[in-house]
Amino acid sequence: MAFPGNDANDDLPLRLGGRVLLFDEQNRILLMEDSDPADPGKGSWWITPGGGLEPGEDPAQAARRELLEETGIAVDGVHGPVGTSEFLLTFRGVPTLQRDTFFHATAPAGEGQEITLTTAEQASLKGSRWWSLAEIESAEIESAGIGESHVPIYPANLAGLARLSQATRQGHKLR
């Protein structure tokens, strides 16, 4: 198996993405239940709204666009970046190295309780849910095989990214 930084990955296509840690008024984070329609036996997993860059986009623009496409929620801007994640996946049947840049935003007051998926997003996204940081931490433990059930949540360090986002949202400077 190849890992980021390993020469075996040199031949893999690189897919760049932008993702949003979207916080609501109760400081919960929106996660989307995603799946691969090309591989229904693979199951589903939870991930932040976001996706691949389109030509001419930077990660922040992609994160904002994908948030609107996947949720119907428009934000004035995204802040950050607060972190990155790099992992191997099969994207549209092709082994791919995915590199995501994470930003944070706050849902407009009263928005986000009813998520609207576009027709294209309905093919892979099964739903959404607002998660507390404690729920995310618990799911990460279970995903690591420590808990009783397996709840796939990505990236594996989402709780850490959420803590960084909360700190920057509260005005703390990152060094």
TrEMBL record:
<dbReference type="Pfam" id="PF00293">
    <property type="entry name" value="NUDIX"/>
</dbReference>
<protein>
    <submittedName>
        <fullName>ADP-ribose pyrophosphatase YjhB, NUDIX family</fullName>
    </submittedName>
</protein>
<dbReference type="InterPro" id="IPR015797">
    <property type="entry name" value="NUDIX_hydrolase-like_dom_sf"/>
</dbReference>
<keyword id="KW-0378">Hydrolase</keyword>
<comment type="similarity">
    <text>Belongs to the Nudix hydrolase family.</text>
</comment>
<dbReference type="InterPro" id="IPR020476">
    <property type="entry name" value="Nudix_hydrolase"/>
</dbReference>
<dbReference type="GO" id="GO:0016787">
    <property type="term" value="F:hydrolase activity"/>
</dbReference>
<dbReference type="InterPro" id="IPR000086">
    <property type="entry name" value="NUDIX_hydrolase_dom"/>
</dbReference>
<dbReference type="InterPro" id="IPR020084">
    <property type="entry name" value="NUDIX_hydrolase_CS"/>
</dbReference>
<keyword id="KW-0460">Magnesium</keyword>
